[in-house]
Amino acid sequence: MEKILLKVQKVLGIKLKFNSLKTKILVWFSVSVAIVLIFFSFSFYYYFNKSVENSIKNNLLNIAYKITNDKNYKSNAIIKIKPSNKQNIKFTIKDYGEYLKATLFFYANNKEFIITKKIDDKSEDIVDTMLVLEPVLLFLLIFLASKMIDKILIPIKNITKTSKEISINNFKNTISQNEEYELKELINSFNEMIKRLQNEVKSLDRFNTNVSHELKTPITIIKGEIAIALKKNRSAKYYQNSLISISQEINNIQKITDNLLLLTKYTKTNIIETFENGDLDTILLEVIEKYNPLLNQKNIKITLKIEHIKFKCNSQLLYHIFSNLIDNAIKYSPKNSNINISLYKNKKINFIIEDEGIGIDKNEISKITEEFYQINKSTKGFGLGLSIVKYGVLLHNGELKITSNKGLKVHIIF
Asked: Which of 70, 106, 350, 395 has the CB geometry, 3.0–4.6 Å to 64, for a possible disulfide?
């Protein structure tokens, strides 16, 4: 098979790879066309011969009719007449290569008329012509099919070329949409895949950058505590305080990594698979219950106005959203103050939390949802809470509004 394909390539001047889609299409096309041409040739040859035979027979019958009705009729056919009482007509035709010999046995008036005529055999010429033309036609069709396939495969080659250019550092290339309708879905899927990979890599890069940035401080503190403790013998109390400090920094590292993993764990694509019907009011009440000790410690009163609402969501992420917002509200609220929380459904689901804290400057509002951004550096925290809130709301196709007057007001709309 490979030898045949190599010969075809040389004749037609086309390049074929034995395992390529183009080669498979051309092989199937060639076999199909060859079968059609062979079938057509045999059919044409058979019906052409039948037509020639009928034409010759009719011609001889016409001669026989004229002979019996016109004594003066002359023909170039060989005519023999002998006595007979038979009534039927018999016709034969023999092929002598260059010519055909047709014989008609015709009976009339108790006589047998034998009419013989030589005819040039045109069918042989037709066969010779077809034997030359059909291979030429087959190769011509294969050549045209090859060029057409090349044109059809251009978009697929573009996809291949673009995919080869894509790397972890290069997601800029996408495939043009000015292609045939049948390939648009494939191209759209490919471009969407590039976007998803781009987002995933950005998320991974962000995670790596944030981890390296935020873990420097606690790791430096831990290394410093250990280095000082090992420099010389210390009291048991000193070692105990060092271990407490190291333990706190390890807890900080754990919190940072947990929050960063939460930011990178979900994307717009994969979070949909985790959605299930959850009770928002139940999730909210669980979060508030967790913060009861802190609320009692600062004597902060929470005013609740909530409705029972079912929502298709990621319950874990909604828990973190509520938790971060309530934690911030408590952290930045003075003692003996109030926090108002509303959860209701109008046309959309609304969650509102308002505190009576210090509030923030209007110029800072757009920045507080950035990762690791802290307004007050002296306040304990990592600057990830509102980033998680913003990202979680975005993943649920929601809207986040933050305003500040006396305190801070956060309004989430799902």
From this structure: 106
- Angle between helical axes of 181-214 and 236-265 (0-180°, round to 10): 170
Distance CA 303, CA 339 (A): 6
Residue the block writes with tokens 């011609």? 59
What is the C-alpha separation between 184 and 125, in angstroms, rounded?
52
Phi first, then psi, for residue 297 (nearest 5°) are -65, -40
Q: Six-digit token pair at 381? A: 């925290």
Give the CATH class of 182-265: mainly alpha
Please tell me the CATH code under which domain 271-413 is placed.
3.30.565.10
Which amino acid, residue 79? I
What is this structure's pTM? Answer: 0.50
Question: Counting every residue, how long is the chain?
Answer: 414
Q: Are 141 and 33 in contact (CB under 8 A)?
A: yes
What residues have CB less than 8 Å from 372, skipping those under 6 apart? 210, 213, 214, 382, 383, 384, 387
CA 124 to chain CA centroid, Å, is: 57
Q: Give residue limits of the domains in the chain.
A: 2-152, 182-265, 271-413
**Which of 257-271, 292-306, 341-355 shows the lowest mean pLDDT across its residues?**
257-271
Q: Helix, strand, or coil here: 197?
A: helix
Measured between alpha carbons, how far is 330 from 144 in angstroms, rounded to an integer?
Answer: 77
Contacts of 396 (CB under 8 A, 6+ apart): 313, 314, 317, 318, 414
Rounded to 5 degrees, what are φ and ψ at 383? 70, 25
Paired strand residues for 411: 352, 401
Hey, what are 187's tokens? 């191209």
d(CA 293, CA 380): 18
Model pLDDT for residues 168-219, shown as the tens digit of each residue:
666 666 666 655 666 777 777 777 877 777 777 776 776 676 666 667 767 8
Token representation of residue 289: 């219950």
Instruction: Return the bridge partners of 82, or none.
Output: 112
Q: Which two tokens mark 347?
A: 């046309």
Q: Give the tens place of pLDDT for each residue, 60-105.
A: 778 777 777 766 666 666 666 665 555 577 888 887 777 778 888 8
Q: Tell me the per-residue pLDDT of 219-233, one tens digit each, with 9 for 90 and over.
A: 887 888 888 888 888
What's the Cα-to-Cα distance from 388 to each of 255, 294, 370, 385, 399, rounded to whole Å? Answer: 13, 22, 9, 5, 14
